[in-house]
Amino acid sequence: MAYNLLKGKKGIIFGALDSKSIAWKVAEKAFEEGAVFTLSNTATALRFGELDELAKKCNATIIPADATSVDDLTRVFEESMKVLGGKVDFVLHSIGMSLNVRKKRVYNDLDYNYLNKTLDISAISFHKMLQVAFKLDAINEWGSVVGLSYVAAQRTLYGYNDMADAKALLESIARSFGYIYGRDRKIRVNTISQSPTNTTAGSGVKGFDGLLDFTERMSPLGNANAEECAEYCITLFSDLTRKVTMQNLFHDGGFSSMGMSWKAMQIYNKSINCDCNDKKDTQMD
Ligand SMILES: NC(=O)c1ccc[n+]([C@@H]2O[C@H](COP(=O)([O-])OP(=O)(O)OC[C@H]3O[C@@H](n4cnc5c(N)ncnc54)[C@H](O)[C@@H]3O)[C@@H](O)[C@H]2O)c1
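That is the input. Now the predicted structure with nicotinamide-adenine-dinucleotide docked in place:
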């Protein structure tokens, strides 16, 4: 059901790769809610993904960009303002990638070139986006910028690797730039800390299926899926949340406030006899 929450609003959505992507669902919902917007992703993603299909469906122009390139980002904001006929009201940063995760480098054996790339792609690109938009004065007053984060920014979760550091930086950038944007432009900047979600990026995390089951058991409302995350993003782009800024907003069915749940305890009790200090039982890395 649509509520016309974004009627008359213009935006830029970064990071839709395929129909599982959180950004893809945000684009579908934003379109339903009356927004016009452009879509952006890397040239490689455009070749291998399905973005054309989404663009057609949402009547959106695609502007390729590597989000680590200030020149590319400048082009995205300039062209978006041209195509959309003025400044934008919302921006979604839904971008993340770790070569250490992809190449199975564990946290105590990181490749530092990969780490630099992880931080650049997954966090510093958020700063670059905000800075480019600030210099171009590309966002309307009371506009809204949202980045996507994960609870590993605050708590250690096995297998999340250097992406945890990237998310901590991403959330910090939202606060630091949120102050400047709020003070000078009346624009809000927030991150949403989303449940594990079955997408290309999500399923790349080591032990993803186990993690998904664990968080489902631990969350009183169950995991939040990509579509529900998109709905939350829409509320943050709408005028209903104009004084929410500099926040990391958990959208995780309650997981982040839990210590132990009955459902998780059932599973834990089943394996309580396993000696987890015995290396023969447990392959750790
Ligand atoms: N899936 C999860 O479990 C989960 C949980 C919490 C937060 N998140 C975050 O949500 C966001 C979206 O991820 P998703 O789960 O929809 O997966 P996804 O794989 O569909 O999206 C990740 C996107 O990042 C893009 N990207 C990678 N490198 C880029 C670059 N250099 N420039 C521009 N774009 C680039 C990819 O092309 C892809 O579209 C990410 O920030 C991710 O960390 C995901």
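The CA atoms of residues 156 and 250 lie 16 Å apart.
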